[in-house]
Amino acid sequence: MSASAPSTAELADLVDVSDRIRAEIEKVVTGRPELVRFTVAVLLAEGHLLLEDVPGVGKTTLAKALATTVSCTVGRVQFTPDLLPSDLTGVNIFRSQTHEFEFRPGPVFANIVIGDEINRASPKTQSALLECMQENHATIDGVSYPLPRPFLVVATQNPVEMEGTYPLPEAQRDRFMARLTVGYPDPRDELEMLERQEVADPITALAPVTDAATVARMIGVVRRLHASEAVKRYVIALVGATREDSGLRLGASPRAAIQLLRAAKALAAVRGRDFVLPDDVQELASPVLAHRVLPSTESRLSGRTTEEIVRAIVDRTPVDHAAGHEPVRRAG
């Protein structure tokens, strides 16, 4: 039996919280409202976010701004080639006074973990996050420690062709709900950015607009949003098409279908709806699926990106008629 749909009051509260988070982030991330909207959607879907782009475009600024807007614990990790897995998860220290081992938790034991330049660490260290991101606990010396909820990893990475980077393993990429690119601002937005940051860093002026308990409650509201069977079939059709496309040698996993639906629910909620439309799925198809698939040799040689392939799949995959005419459902 499915959970009851969110009430009108719950949905209004969620929209208010998400709007306040977005407004605060947009004080430092100018001219990219959709990027901020998708970031907030990933937060409310309790997913993990991968920000990829060239250095200096604001990846870390976006991650820090998101962490600042929520009154919660924040862990920060600067990934380097010599970073060890224990530097992330923590270590047991022997105390001579008590003759006992004491666990000292690492930065991963936080509500929001900012991983800066994650693809500069070795694959062994990158893999230390796998258990944390999937199962919300960390195992150190055979003992499992639960991580706080909500738990969100916001990682930044430079394009893999840049010097000193290691490609993330497929299993690691699959743990991230979405991969977003920041991109260069247009001249008008860049001028506004220069004026704002000419004297001081605007992040220092940001203030929390909500807390971890509220975000956890909003995540529960998002999970209860209605998604019709037609919308679910559409999600499965998109994911299934990636497994059959000749331009890909590895399609999206079943986890990708779950993540796409959850992200679409969060995007619908942020927009004030208590039901999912195909438009929500289509907008998030590339951010959620493109980093999980692998291009074929022919696609790589021709310079065709996985984003282009996923967009082509969206364009040619028909939408069930019923999925595009979802009735408004209110529970209170």
Keywords:
alpha/beta, Rossmann fold, Helicase, Ruva Protein, domain 3, two-stranded parallel sheet, 16% strand
Instruction: Give me the count of strands.
Output: 13
Largest beta sheet: strand ordering = 3-6-9-1-10
Give the quaternary arrangement of the chains: single chain
Roughly how many Å apart are the termini? 19 Å
Please tell me what the overall shape is.
globular
Biggest β-sheet, characterized?
A: 5 strands, parallel
Order of helices and strands: HHEHEEHEEEHEEEHEHEHHEHHEHH
Total helical segments:
13
Strand percent estimate: 15-25%
Alpha-beta classification: alpha/beta
CATH overall fold name of the largest domain: Rossmann fold
**CATH class category of the largest domain:** Alpha Beta
- Classify the helix fraction into a percent range: 40-55%
- How many structural domains? 2
Tell me the CATH architecture of the largest domain: 3-Layer(aba) Sandwich
Mean pLDDT: 87
By CATH's scheme, which homologous superfamily of the largest domain applies?
P-loop containing nucleotide triphosphate hydrolases
| Radius of gyration, in angstroms, nearest whole number | 20 Å
Low-confidence stretches: 327-332
Protein architecture, described:
With 332 residues, this protein is of the alpha/beta class. Helices cover 45% and strands 16% of the residues. It has helices at residues 8-25, 33-44, 59-69, 85-89, 123-135, 170-175, 187-197, 212-223, 229-244, 254-270, 278-289, 297-302, 306-316, and strands at residues 49-52, 70-71, 74-78, 90-95, 100-105, 112-116, 137-140, 143-146, 152-157, 178-180, 210-211, 248-250, 294-295. The longest helix is centred in the first third of the chain and has 18 residues, at 8-25. The two termini are 19 Å apart. The model is unreliable at 327-332 (pLDDT under 50).
